[in-house]
Please model this.
Amino acid sequence: MSAPIMTALDRAGYRLTEPRRALAALIADQEGHFTAAELVAAARARRIGIGRATVFRTLEVLEAIGAVERIDLPTGEHAYVGCEPAHHHHVVCSRCGRTSEIDDAGLRSVMREVARQTGYRVDEHRLELFGVCPACLATRPRPRSITA
Amino acid sequence: MSAPIMTALDRAGYRLTEPRRALAALIADQEGHFTAAELVAAARARRIGIGRATVFRTLEVLEAIGAVERIDLPTGEHAYVGCEPAHHHHVVCSRCGRTSEIDDAGLRSVMREVARQTGYRVDEHRLELFGVCPACLATRPRPRSITA
DNA sequence: CCGCCTGTTGAGACTGTGTCTCATCTGTGC
DNA sequence: GCACAGATGAGACACAGTCTCAACAGGCGG
Model:
C-alpha cells in the first residue's frame, strides 16, 4: 500500500497532501521500475490531475527520504523503484522489469580492494545488475515464435 | 594520442573521416570524463566545425567498439571516458573528474552471491565508484576558506 | 471551529539533451 | 580517377527536467 511512503513523508516533516497521496498510491501499484513519465501517464490514465512538475518534485523528495531509489537503465533512461530506506542495490529483470533488493553480498570487500589498488578514497558507489528473474526464467523463453 | 581510437575504428570497419579524427583528438585531450555537450563546446572553441549530430553518432560508434565507456554521474548526467576495450569499471574522482580503470577486484564472486541469493540469472552489471583520487587527496582539501 | 502562514501545487514557459531527416559530401575499393 | 555506400551537417523535432509565479490547502494557534 501507499501507507509506508506517507508515513515516511510525515516523519520527515513533509505535508501529507492530496497529490502526494495519489502519487504514493500510483507508486505502490508499480510492479517493477518506473519513470517519471510513466507516473505522469498513469495519473492521467486514472483521471487524476497532477502536474508534471509535482511528479518530478515528489520523486525528488521521495528519493531524499529514501522511499524510492533512482536507477539508471542500460538504455540511459532514469527510472525509480520503491524500496526500503537503507543502502542496498537492485537486480532488475530485463524481461518483466521487476526488481529485487540485494544486500552487501561482498561488495564491501570489493570497495576495499579497489581503494587499495588505486589509492582512491572511495566515497560513493552505485551497482546495478540486470538479468532475468526466477519467475521469467521459469516461463520458458521460447526464442522462436515471438522473438525469432 | 588519438591513434588508438582511429585504429579501433579502422579495425571495426568504419571509415576514417576528418570529423572522426578531430573528435578522437579532442577525446584524447580530455583529462577525466566528458559529456557530449562538452565535446561540442570543445570543438567550437577550437573552431572545428563538427555538427552536433556527428558528435552523438561518433560517441555511439565509439561506445559500440569499446573505445569509450558511458558512465552515469551521480547528478544524472551521462558522461563518457576514453578507455581500453575490455570489460572493466571506473573510479571517478569527484574533485578533478579524472578516472581510473579497475579490474574485477572480487566483483565476480559478488555476482555469483547475488545470483544465489535472488535466483536471478545475472546477465549484465554496471558498477560505478566515486571518490577522491590520490593526487587530490594529497593537495589538502582545506574545507574552510572556499567551501566554508 | 476558524483563519493564518507557509509549504505545496499547476500551468506553462523555458533549457538542454538526444534523435531524425535529407540533401550533400567524402572515404575507399576498383 | 570514378562510383557508391557510408558519413556528415543543418535544422527540425521529441522529450526530460527545471523554473516562475500566482493560487491553493495542510496544519497549527487561537
In short: Chain B touches chain A through 39 residues (CB under 8 Å).
